[in-house]
Amino acid sequence: MVSKNTICLWFNGDALDAAKFYAATFPDSAVKAVHQAPGDYPAGKQGDVLTVEFTVAGIPCLGLNGGPGARHSEAFSFQIATEDQEETDRLWNAIVQNGGQESVCGWCKDKWGLSWQITPRVLSEAIADPDPAVAKRAFEAMMTMGKIDVAAIEAARRG
Predict the structure, then answer these.
(1) DSSP characters over 94-135
(2) Measured on CA atoms in the order 1, 63, 59, 31, is the torsion positive or negative?
(3) Residue 1: predicted pLDDT
(4) What CATH number has the domain spanning 1-68?
(5) Phi–psi pair at 85, nearest 5 degrees
(6) What is the mean pLDDT of the chain?
(7) Per-residue pLDDT at 117
(8) Distance (Å, rounded) from C-alpha 90 to C-alpha 93?
(9) Distance set, CA 156 to CA 33, 83, 147 (Å)
(10) Where exactly does CATH 3.10.180.10 map onto the chain?
């Protein structure tokens, strides 16, 4: 059954590679179906992989091999909540070491240009702390980081 709301992500011929990477990297992720083009189209030929149905952390997605005409931007990102430094490191490193690139404040970009926020729950909780001084310390600590350092966030939260 097709989901009522599915995120459609544009790729340049490598939607299946991306979907397989996401399925192997993120919990509750899978490649569901691969559909070939029923005819020629601007970015490919009949029989080429046109779309890939997959999930990322439980979110239904459709990879569309639409060609080089559209690029991903930071205006869209997946935010993945992590439980600890080990999970944060594993996901961040999987993205960055597979042709991606580091950014700031827990953001990184995969080799297909999609942006990811690898966000430890402790950071989200600290920034939402009802004590504005605690939230500010955690926020200021985060602003100095690339990959989030859980121990540094916890230390900032404690003051």
Answers:
(1) HHHTTT-EE-STTEEE-TTS-EEEEEEHHHHHHHT-SSHHHH
(2) positive
(3) 65
(4) 3.10.180.10
(5) -65, -35
(6) 97
(7) 98
(8) 5
(9) 45, 18, 16
(10) 1-68, 72-159
Indicate if the alpha-carbon torsion angle 72, 125, 55, 147 is positive or negative: positive
pLDDT band at 3 (very low <50, low <70, confident <90, very high): confident
Contact 23, 54 (CB under 8 A): yes
Question: 14-40 pLDDT, tens per residue?
Answer: 999 999 999 999 999 999 999 999 999
For 31, 70, 72, the CA distances from 114, given in Å and listed in that order, are: 17, 12, 6
The H or E element containing residue 93 is helix 85-96
Q: Which of 83, 89, 90 is nearest to 123 (CA)?
A: 83
Residues 117 and 79: their CA atoms lie apart, in Å, by 4
Q: CA geometry: angle at 114 spanning 48 and 17, to 5°?
A: 35
Query: Average pLDDT for residues 97-115, to the nearest whole number?
Result: 98
| Amino acid symbol at 123 | L
End-to-end CA distance of the chain: 50
Which residue type does 9 have? L
| d(C-alpha 122, C-alpha 6), whole Å | 29
Say which CATH class 72-159 falls into.
alpha beta
Q: What is the mean pLDDT of residues 34-54?
A: 97
